[in-house]
Write a structure and sequence with these properties.
Chain A: Belongs to the amino acid-polyamine-organocation (APC) superfamily. Spore germination protein (SGP) (TC 2.A.3.9) family. The complex is a heterotrimer of chains A (about 375), B (about 400) and C (about 550). Chain A is an all-alpha fold. In chain A, about 75% of the residues lie in helices and about 0% in strands. Chain A has a two-stranded antiparallel ribbon. The chains are: A mainly alpha (about 375), B alpha/beta (about 400), C alpha+beta (about 550). Chains A and C meet through helix 5, helix 6 and helix 13 of A and helix 17 of C.
């Protein structure tokens, strides 16, 4: 089967969509109060360092995805075991975002709808799109990217013209010292959303122009980091630091304040639209990566056969993952970054790099002999 | 197999279709326009809801059998907290109360004196209520009476009040739109306290709550009156008139206003229209007691002159400017004094100090802000500019006096 | 039914021949011809043995008899036997055979019979019939298109094609002569694609006329017209038109292959052909542009596309097709770029409106009442008071009614059509509102949707919006904007997954082709449209010389 390769601009677009996905709505780094925007920038820098590491790792195996070269690096069985761990991790990430997304939608719009229904509908859509192929997902991303950017610009202009912002809310910069900012920035912000770029370990082999991968990737992260930071700054300027930190979706609350001439009001509908699109792409990419990992681990020939089962697993676990939203959020902020994100995003990849460096010579031999293989 | 594959999504659709969880037809909703909260003797909340009868309000529909029903109706309900009262109200309403379009939240004076905290949480928590809902206090009356008052021009009182507030803020500058978000923000701000607009009924209060209010020439009306000053969530007192405007001057929220100043011994003979104004605040945090400097830069036009003054002379204009500066200065000083009297930082000096010197604020001032606030020294400096004088130069009074000689 | 139709057998037979030749087939209704086609097929089957035997017999009467038998001795078969002199005093018998309505009798009379009968024979002519035939071919007939006929099958085919055949006694060959004629619709203004500015001629049912129209616009030696024949019975002629120096050879190969692979009895309209050669069957979106306008075909082949013209229908196809083409009108290129950009945006938004307007209404009034401005909400709520149906039922009823009205209006005879629209507008619209069955807002929404769906330039794509509207309304009644958004994602994903002859349907948006964006939702000034579509025109990319270069050239020449 001919594998589909993504253009460099498509690669850029999916990174931005992926990064903004759910992060733009939730108050990212809000424990830093009015310096949240700065915490995001700090997280972004760290995330970019991590990304460079991922790039280095996958550069060694340009035509292979993580779960494929793990089997080269560690032999078939340990490699598969590690690959399986990553499969679970990706699936868990998909589940988490799905749950996040469902809960947010529930608390904002669908108060009485069961979360299972909302999530099922979302996953059903994703399964449909993934069955059409990764290519379709990426191209759909291109179209919605333009749409989301246009919407974002419109909303930005509206917020500015409605004269809602007060820059005083951002001052004083680092009023309570740098510590709250650092606390907010580590470890949450680098791992979410920037560290989630770890999924690209699975996607790098599908990028067309390899020499630009790092540069464009970092640029995309920079762009999305700036957008995130700017959005949060805008939220704070509109709502004031304290309200912004105590609202589940600051962006929604900020946009809801727009009221131009009693007619242009309640623009939060547009934000909900972006929320759904962003959530869709993020979950879809996680699920796709999980499918790819499963394909390698279980040696499935056609990825399309396992999309539906994995999707159903995601739905079920998204419901079972936590009994209420607070538990879910607490896990998301306290436990997950430390015990799940950091091992999978930092420790394991670093370990892989080290193992690679040690086994370099042995592997080189292997790589030479196996390199013509993917070309077939 | 293929049929089965088509059938599964179809049946899922059917299952989904049966439960329309959050679907509410428009005719199953009571659109709440205003919420009033009062306190009963036993500590329960007495909540009133102003509900619109859309057939009477909608343009064009009125012709068909309109005029028989009132434009709105007010339900009253009680409960230990707001949510309980709201759900309790369903014993009287045939439809679900729908809050997304509520324009104002009226608190009673009694409740405000006890504490407003209790009534704000649900309003800010419920996803349905818009964060742009205006918070007001019924001054010298009860929220339920305000909500019951029939207004003559705009059909729904709550709508009218929201409009009044906006107009007043833009034209007169003694009141400031305060939505639920801003109230909460000012409560949480460093050392901050909220400032909430007051509402009163003027005219025949008996008549106000009957539909006859439409028919008389000077019906009872609802009017904005001053702003309530809070301390720790309790209403302490009111700032009225120029005092209130002083607060807005410091906050830099004056958009436009009309201020009378004296001229050549005639009291209040010249009226100056403020076109725009800029305020800059700075604080010196060297001492134990901070010093705050308020610089106001209004741009004005002369709107009315009832004294013989030669407006073609620059020096006269400068004189007027100086007089105007003094008037504003006085207003501001009065406002500061009033707030210091109540020991309530409604102006936001705490925020300012925190911005200027976060360390000192957190370590020194914040702890005994109650003791420090009344002593804060405020230096006011107003530098106004009179730009234009309408489509006339000197007033005819001046011509009359100077002309023949 | 069948018997009744058979009784006026003359007419039926004639029609069947016409249809078989597909010259005037479009004028006759397919209901009548269907059984006769069967008959023809039956006959063909019976006689196959005798025909296949190959060469023409030199016996004139025998051939004539065979032809008569083969065609069932139809009334419109004319066999004119005559004699002419080859030597002084030596006469030879010849016959001209043709189908009356497919040929122009005047042509036959003036340019075949007349010169032959008046032939002044020379002495040198030998008596060998072959030589006589050659002599006639070169000296005797004044018809442009002449070719030899060697087999009986060929003879029958040329007769059905609308040629006349000249046979000479004792000769194993005949001559087929291009005397095509008969009545066809004249060139008229296209009815489905009316423009304010631009050529007013539209295709007709006659393939030759249509090809001539294209050739008149594109006078290039590189214009290629290739003829294919599809349909076991109808033998429909299909012409592929492209520019050899622009179009991608692989594309042309693909188009030809797909057409050649078709195995079917009949192709009567290009819509049938479209269904055979399109990429994806399970979709509501049209995958080929159909057009009645020669200038549209010309414009598209200039971009590297292929035009497919089918005999018997004025609608020709264009392949490959991008989604965005359905929102472009040929007029866009004839008007100023600013107004055409505006119009394109307008059409696109109109498509979106016709797709989602009712579902937005349902979502707003049943889920997101908070998003309606307060005053408007009062209005809508007041109108909804006392309506017995939920919003979704209300919308469904109205949309369905509208679809009925539309269908009735199209199929009705024109005189009755007016009545239908009056009944529809007054009785159903106004009365339903007054009776309190539907709210006035709903009528407005349906009205907007209807008008919007008519404003989309392509009928084909308006139809897909029409079909998708109903599922969208259903999902919005259950999930509000959430459902609509997900449904839109599904629709867009489906669109991106479509391909037309291997070219992505949604390009230049997905995958993004910046150069081609200049002529998509907007139309840039023509001096900016320098390149042909990137993926389509493989060979000759530059369309317009860049302005600066041109200027430079001018300067140089003036020096």
């Amino acid at each position: 089967m001919k594998t589909y390769k993504i253009d460099i601009q498509q690669y850029f677009i999916i990174i931005v969509l992926f990064e903004l996905g759910s992060a733009i709505l939730v108050g990212l780094g809000m424990s830093a109060g009015r310096d949240a925007w700065f915490a995001i920038l700090m997280g972004m820098v760290l995330g970019m360092v991590m990304f460079t590491g991922y790039y280095y790792l996958s550069k060694q195996f340009p035509e292979m995805s993580l779960t494929q070269y793990l089997q080269v690096l560690f032999g078939k069985y340990i490699g598969k075991l590690l690959g399986f761990c990553y499969l679970i991790y990706f699936l868990y990430l998909a589940t988490r975002v799905l749950r996040d997304f469902g809960s947010l939608l529930l608390s904002a719009v669908f108060v009485q709808t069961p979360i299972a229904v909302v999530n099922t509908l979302m996953v059903a859509t994703i399964i449909y799109v993934l069955k059409l192929g990764f290519e379709v997902l990426v191209r759909t991303g291109e179209i919605f990217f333009t749409l989301v950017i246009l919407l974002g610009l419109t909303l930005g202009v509206l917020v500015i013209s409605a004269d809602l912002m007060d820059h005083n809310y951002l001052l004083p910069f680092l009023g309570k010292g740098i510590m709250p900012v650092i606390k907010a920035a580590f470890p949450v912000t680098p791992t979410f959303p920037f560290g989630e770029m770890v999924v690209f370990l699975m996607l790098f082999p599908y990028v067309k122009s390899k020499n630009k991968t790092l540069k464009v990737g970092l640029f995309a992260m920079l762009v999305s980091g700036l957008i995130l930071s700017g959005t949060i700054a805008m939220d704070i300027m509109v709502l004031g630091g304290h309200v912004a930190t105590h609202v589940f979706f600051p962006l929604l609350a900020a946009i809801a304040k727009i009221n131009l001439g009693e007619f242009i009001q309640r623009m939060d509908a547009l934000v909900v639209f972006t929320l759904i699109i962003g959530g869709f792409f993020k979950i879809a990419i996680f699920l796709y990566v999980a499918v790819k990992a499963a394909q390698d681990v279980f040696e499935v020939k056609d990825e399309k056969t396992i999309i539906t089962p994995i999707g159903i697993v995601a739905i079920l676990s998204s419901i079972a993952i936590a009994s209420n939203f607070v538990e879910h959020i607490r896990e998301g902020l306290r436990i997950v970054p430390h015990f799940i994100h950091i091992p999978f995003q930092v420790i394991l990849p670093a370990f892989f790099i080290i193992v690679f460096l040690i086994r370099r010579k042995q592997l080189k031999h292997f790589a030479d002999s196996s390199s013509p293989k993917p070309a077939k | 197999m293929k049929i089965l594959k088509c059938f599964i999504p179809f049946s899922i659709c059917l299952v989904l279709l049966t439960g329309c969880w959050d679907q509410h037809e428009l005719d199953e909703l009571s659109i709440v326009m205003g919420i009033g909260i009062n306190k009963a003797k036993n500590g329960d909340l007495l909540v009133s809801y102003q509900i619109v009868n859309p057939t009477e309000v909608a343009p064009g529909i009125t012709g068909a059998g309109g005029g028989k029903q009132p434009v709105f109706t007010v339900y009253e309900s009680r409960g230990k907290n707001l949510m309980e009262a709201t759900r309790n109200a369903s014993r009287q309403t045939s439809r679900r109360l729908f809050f997304a379009h509520a324009r104002m939240l009226v608190l009673s004076e009694k409740l405000s004196k006890d504490s407003i905290y209790q009534s704000l949480d649900m309003i800010s928590r419920d996803p349905e209520v818009r964060s742009t809902i205006q918070v007001l206090i019924a001054r010298g009356t009860t929220p339920s009476k305000i909500l019951r008052t029939f207004s003559a021009i705009d059909k729904v009182t709550s709508d009218e009040v929201a409009a009044i507030l906006k107009i007043t803020e833009e034209n007169w500058g003694e009141n400031l739109q305060q939505d639920i978000n801003e109230v909460l923000q000012s409560i949480i701000n460093e050392g901050g306290e909220p400032l909430i607009n007051g509402l009163e009924i003027v005219g025949d209060k008996e008549l106000a709550v009957t539909a006859k209010n439409y028919e008389v020439g000077d019906p009872a009306r609802i009017r904005l009156t001053g702003m309530g000053v809070f301390k720790d969530g309790k209403l302490k007192g009111w700032v009225d008139g120029p005092e209130a405007r002083g607060v807005l001057w410091i906050k830099g929220k004056i958009k436009s206003s009309a201020i009378s100043i004296g001229c050549k011994g005639y009291k209040g003979a010249v009226n100056v229209e403020v076109v725009r104004s800029k305020t800059s605040l700075s604080a010196s945090t060297k001492g134990d007691i901070p010093e705050i400097k308020v610089d106001v830069f209004p741009e004005t036009n002369i709107a009315e002159v009832n004294c013989p003054v030669n407006l073609e002379k620059e020096s006269e204009i400068y004189k007027l400017e100086a007089t105007f500066d003094k008037v504003i200065e006085k207003e501001i000083v009065k406002a500061v004094k009033a707030s210091q009297k109540y020991n309530s930082d409604v102006i936001g000096f705490g925020e300012l100090l925190y911005r200027e010197n976060p360390n000192k604020w957190l370590n020194v001032y914040k702890k005994n802000y109650a003791a420090i606030y009344p002593q804060i020294k405020v230096k006011v400096h107003v530098d106004s500019r009179i730009r234009r004088s309408g489509i006339r130069t000197s007033p005819f009074l001046f011509e009359k006096k100077e002309g023949p000689s | 039914m069948r018997n009744r139709r058979k009784r006026p057998s003359i007419k039926t037979q004639k029609l069947s021949d016409m249809v078989a030749n597909n010259k005037i087939g479009n004028n006759s209704s397919s209901h009548i011809t269907a059984p006769s086609e069967d008959d023809a097929a039956q006959e063909e089957h019976d006689n196959k043995g005798t025909i296949k035997k190959g060469e023409l017999s030199p016996n004139l009467h025998m051939i004539c008899g065979q032809v008569k038998k083969r065609l069932g001795d139809p009334v419109d078969l004319i066999i004119r036997e005559f004699e002419f002199e080859v030597h002084p005093n030596q006469k030879i018998t010849a016959a001209i055979i043709f189908l009356e309505e497919l040929n122009d009798p005047q042509l036959v009379n003036e340019f075949i019979l007349e010169p032959l009968m008046a032939l002044k024979p020379e002495r040198s002519i030998t008596t060998s019939p072959e030589k006589i035939l050659r002599y006639i071919k070169h000296n005797g007939i004044s018809v442009g298109k002449v070719a030899d006929v060697e087999t009986e099958e060929e003879l029958i085919e040329s007769l059905l094609e609308g040629l006349s055949v000249l046979l000479v006694e004792g000769c194993k060959k005949g001559l087929k002569l291009g005397t095509c004629g008969g009545k066809a619709r004249g060139i008229e203004e296209p009815t489905t694609e009316v423009v304010i500015r631009g050529p007013k001629q539209g295709f007709t049912e006659n393939l030759k006329t249509n090809l001539s129209m294209v050739r008149r616009i594109v006078r290039s030696p590189d214009l290629r017209i290739e003829k294919l024949v599809v349909g076991e019975i109808t033998k429909t002629e299909i012409a592929i038109v492209y520019l050899d120096n622009i179009a991608n050879p692989l594309l042309i190969k693909e188009v030809k292959e797909r057409i050649n692979q078709i195995e079917t009895d009949a192709i009567i309209e290009s819509g049938q052909l479209e269904e055979f050669i399109q990429d994806e069957t399970v979709t509501v979106f049209p995958q080929m542009v159909d057009t009645e306008r020669p200038d549209v075909v010309a414009g598209n082949i200039l971009e590297g596309r292929v035009g497919i013209l089918v005999n018997g229908t004025p609608f020709s196809l264009i392949a490959p097709t991008q989604f965005i083409q359905f929102f472009q009108s040929s007029e866009d290129y004839y008007m100023r770029y600013d107004i055409s950009s505006f119009l394109r945006l307008l059409r696109f938004s109109v498509f979106i409106i016709s797709l989602i307007a009712p579902s937005i209404y349902i979502a707003l009034t049943t889920f997101h009442q908070a998003m309606i401005p307060t005053t408007l909400l009062f209005g809508i709520a007041a109108q909804r008071e006392g309506i017995p149906f939920p919003a979704i039922a209300e919308a469904m009823i109205m949309e369905f009614t509208f679809e009925i009205l539309r269908e009735a209006g199209i199929r009705m005879p024109r005189a009755v059509g007016v009545t239908v629209s009056i009944v529809g507008a007054l009785v159903l619209g106004q009365a339903a509102v007054q009776a309190g069955l539907v709210s006035p807002v709903m009528v407005i929404v349906v009205g907007i949707t209807a008008v919007a769906s008519f404003a989309v330039p392509s009928f084909a794509v308006a139809t897909s919006a029409r079909l998708l509207r109903f599922p969208l309304m259903l999902i919005s009644s259950v999930f509000g904007f959430y459902g609509i958004t997900l449904a839109l994602i599904v629709i867009v994903a489906h669109l991106t997954s479509l391909r037309s002859f291997g070219y992505p349907y949604l390009s230049p948006f997905a995958p993004l082709q910046v150069q081609d964006l200049k002529d998509s939702l907007f139309r840039f000034p023509i001096t900016q449209l320098l390149k042909r579509p990137e993926k389509l025109a493989r060979k000759n990319q530059t369309r317009t010389a860049p302005y600066k270069v041109k200027k430079k050239r001018e300067e140089e020449t003036t020096r």
